[in-house]
Amino acid sequence: MKNFIESAGRLKTGPFLIEIIEFNTDCFNENTPSIHGIRLPECLKNAVTQRKAEYTAGRIVAGRQLASCGISAEIPMNRDRSPAWPPGFTGSITHDKNITCAVASLKKESFYNLGIDLCISATGEDMKNIAGLISTPEERKSFISCSLSEKDALRIIFSAKESLYKAVYPEVKRFIDFKEVTIAPASGDNEHGKVYPVAVSTEGNTAGIIQKYQVYYRRFRFKEYTGFLTLASPGHLI
Predict the structure, then answer these.
(1) Most exposed residue of 112, 208, 224, 225, measured as fewest CB within 10 angstroms of its CB?
(2) Neighbouring residues of 95: CB distance < 8 A, sequence distance ≥ 6
């Protein structure tokens, strides 16, 4: 008999250890959250099964990540639907297909936040179809030195901007468009590396906040799943 949580693992990305679980939506039922100590928020009570399963799996993996930091705590949902991390902690959750990942850390300063993104379902061909919406030709060419194909470069650019958005959102409190930020590689190859986001927009203090961050990338391989994982964190506090 299959379980809701099918497998688990860890993956180092930059200086961070990422918690990973694979979940099975077909094994989710109304008792699954409580079995794992998770309380579904009211806004999800009537959601489709996939969304409930994603939320439950995300809180399970985030709880495991907090446990590795020495704390046991519930992670409810904020009004803006972002995770409400315990006081003094920051973290991020991502999911794609039936994989969910989480990272958590002590907050080193008030603005210190983390963002994580997993890109496995969006193929290189998918990215090429929206290349003009998410990147510039200069961004794509800048990854040649990392020995990355254009398709993989696009997946990293897309994912890096997603993880950056999650990291800076608690400070800027607004959506950041793909064209507001450019991604410039700092170092790396076709397996893992680090890139720097550069703000194109100078609206308010957004540019200053964005340029405090760096984004780690690494090729993601877990069972039959492949893609890229990116993690954004303030560079000067690592």
Answers:
(1) 224
(2) 54, 57, 58, 101, 118
Assess contact for 83 and 93: CB atoms under 8 A. Answer: yes
Residue type, position 45, single letter: K
3-state DSSP helix/strand/coil percent for the chain, to nearest 5? 35, 30, 35
Neighbouring-strand partners of residue 100: 21, 95
Summarised one tens digit per residue, pLDDT across range 106-119 is 998 877 899 999 99
Per residue in 62-111, pLDDT tens?
999 999 989 999 999 999 899 999 999 999 999 999 999 999 999 988 77
pLDDT band at 175 (very low <50, low <70, confident <90, very high): confident
Number of neighbours of residue 79 by Cβ within 10 angstroms: 7
CA distances from 82 to 39, 92, 171 (A): 15, 9, 13
Cβ atoms of residues 64 and 72 within 8 Å? no
Return d(Cα 170, Cα 167) in angstroms, integer. 7
Q: Which two three-digit tokens encode residue 36?
A: 């794992």
Measure CA 168 to chain center.
12
